[in-house]
Amino acid sequence: MKKFSEFKVGDSFFSTCSISDKELEEYLNFSRVRNAFLEQKQKGEQQMVSGRAILSRMEGEFTRLSQIYGNHIVFLGTDGDPEWKNRNTRFLKPFYTDQVLKLKFTISQKEDVDDEFGKIAVDYEGTTQDEQTVVISKRNIYRIKKDPPR
């Protein structure tokens, strides 16, 4: 695990994941999302994964990175990107259950908050195994304790 002082703007961390039909169904049941498009699964076909489910998994994978896990972090929200009229996330291609999602997390901003906490902004990028960009999400902001417990 890295301490707040060790993070640098531009640092990137990587992971991979996939979302199974069962996991997507559990997410949709928990979130109570109703979307006819997402419910049109044909037997034996992969199901399209909702954007929020993708982002939720990406954040989960971020918190499990060896550089992050063990820190006291709290997701504060998103500020968006000024170049995108302060929008935060773009979904560029559909993503389906059981596809591999290659994840890249990049520290895009770092600032002190007070003696105990700092703040980092993290850009997410998810691509398929074929290098097709599925999602870009900028400026996901976390409060992070400067001296995490050991």
Brief synopsis:
Helices cover 17% and strands 35% of the residues. It has helices spanning 21-31, 51-64, and strands at residues 12-17, 73-78, 89-91, 101-112, 117-128, 133-145. Strands 1, 2, 3, 4, 5 and 6 form a six-stranded antiparallel β-sheet that branches.
Characterise this structure.
The longest helix has 14 residues, at 51-64. The model has no long low-confidence stretch (mean pLDDT 90). The protein contains 2 helices and 6 strands, in the order βααβββββ. The chain has a single domain, classed as Hotdog Thioesterase (Thiol Ester Dehydrase, Chain A, Roll), CATH 3.10.129. 17% of the residues lie in helices and 35% in strands. The protein has 150 residues and is of the alpha+beta class. Strands 1, 2, 3, 4, 5 and 6 form a 6-stranded antiparallel sheet that branches. It has helices at residues 21-31, 51-64, and strands spanning 12-17, 73-78, 89-91, 101-112, 117-128, 133-145.
First-to-last CA distance = 9 Å
Poorly predicted segments: none
> What class, by secondary structure content?
alpha+beta
Give the rounded overall mean pLDDT: 90
- How do the helices and strands follow one another from N- to C-terminus? EHHEEEEE
Using only CA atoms, what is the Rg? 17 Å
Give the CATH topology: Thiol Ester Dehydrase, Chain A
CATH class: Alpha Beta
Tally of distinct domains:
1
Strand content: 25-35%
Tell me the number of strands: 6
Task: Please give the count of helices.
Answer: 2
The fourth-level CATH homologous superfamily is Hotdog Thioesterase
| C-alpha geometry | elongated
Largest sheet: 6 strands, antiparallel
Assembly state of the chains shown: single chain
How much helical structure, as a percent, in the residues? 10-25%
CATH-scheme architecture: Roll
